[in-house]
Amino acid sequence: MSIRAARLIRPGGLCFCLLIFLSGCAPRPAEEILEKCREQYAGAENLYEKSTITIKTKMAGKVEEQESELEVYFRKPDSIHSSKDGNVLICNADDLHLYMSSIGQAKRMDPPHSLQSVYENYLAKFHLGRELNAVDSINWFLGSDVEDGPRTATVARKLTHSRGIQCYVLNLALASGAQQTLWIGKRDSLIYRNEVAVSDEDMQRHFKKKTEDRSLDEQQAQMLLERLAGLNIHTTETVVGTAINAEMPDDWFTFKKSKGVEEVQEFHFDLVGEQERPFTLKSTDGKRVSLQEFRGKVVLLDFWASWCEPCIKELPIIEKIYQSLAGKGLVVLGINLEDAETARIAAKQHGLTFPVLVDEEGDARESYQVKGIPRLILIDRTGKITGDFTGLSSKDELRKAINKAGVK
């Protein structure tokens, strides 16, 4: 045996080699893993993600589960192509198109000022953790670090595999009290699985903080808390495809109208020309109100909810129209999709003087095929539907439709 070989197997030399080997396997600090992950996304020019999002809710012993698929292409500084359950959003520097496959319609709008505003307005709602300042790959890519991120982060000692990729598993305690678990690739520092668990107590702390910094009205926060009492939510986003700085041609971010697609100024469904669908609902003061009572008058139905921002923006428009045309034969019926107390508080808060009915069981919503809100249905004096609007509508657009229905 050579002297060199003998030295390698000396006890001291063996321990030294073993120490080097073990040090290479030692878990990295959680903060270091998170920072490396953030740098990967923040430094990228393009980002592609395809993920399956599962939302489990538990309230009063009842468990519900929803699953959807979201695919997004981001290209700085101004381009997005996303699809979710057949609906498509395409944005570039010149315009933004929304396409709803369920009704075969596409709507063109002026593009927002930034990718961040597109994400906030159209995509962030699919990421519950975004509201709770959880770690978010898209947020990091867009360069908007959360103001109050994780308070603590720990690395689970055991490495796991997601889609055959070796990952660090990080447990994060968020400032709101919610818990987040991340699977971050050991080699590429990308997120492959993201879980957020939220209790009603976590939401209570979160909304309290938002009222303290005046980003949320106290009455609105209380209304939300009452609605969420006893609710526990667990979201799991599993990334099934991801790429950073992959080539993305311009035509990926250009809307191409295909055969059978109707370009519209406002989304509308196929109820125009059909007869009204009768219903009887209770108002916020407990009275039973039937649609048939108003035959011979022009009726505007407004499907809305207090948590729907476009709905809240549209309410003052509806109220002004009601004030000016109620004496000329226009009936406005607000149809709130929440419980009676929430509807009553919201109607009072926003100064509504037209009747607000409560459709907590969803009977009227189902009858009128309401898939999105705000949704306005205009019915003429004979009971025929002459207007159907989904999304935020302008005052001029509504006045024109109401005038055409016979109220001027």
Describe the structure concisely for a colleague.
The protein is 29% helix and 32% strand. The protein has 12 helices and 20 strands.
Structure in words:
This protein has twelve helices and 20 strands. 29% of the residues lie in helices and 32% in strands. Mean pLDDT is 82; it is low at 1-25. The strands form two sheets. Strands 1, 2, 3, 4, 5, 6, 7, 8, 9, 10, 11, 12 and 13 form a 13-stranded mixed β-sheet that branches. Strands 15-14-18-17-16-19-20 form a seven-stranded mixed β-sheet, with helices on one face. Strand 2 and strand 3 (79-84) form a beta hairpin. Helix 7 (200-212) packs antiparallel against helix 8 and helix 8 runs antiparallel to helix 10 (340-349). The chain has two domains: 30-253, outer membrane lipoprotein receptor (LolB), chain A (Clam), CATH 2.50.20.10; 266-405, Glutaredoxin. With 408 residues, it is α+β, with helices and mostly antiparallel strands.
Gross morphology is globular
The unreliable regions are 1-25
| CATH topology label of the largest domain | outer membrane lipoprotein receptor (LolB), chain A
Biggest sheet descriptor: 13 strands, mixed
- How big is the Rg? 27 Å
Report the count of strand segments. 20
Estimated helix fraction: 25-40%
Strand content: 25-35%
CATH class of the largest domain: Mainly Beta
Instruction: Output the structural class.
Output: alpha+beta
How many DSSP H or I helices?
Answer: 12
Report the CATH superfamily of the largest domain: Lipoprotein localisation LolA/LolB/LppX
Please state the second-level CATH architecture of the largest domain. Clam
Tell me the count of domains.
2
Separation of the first and last Cα atoms: 107 Å
Overall pLDDT metric: 82
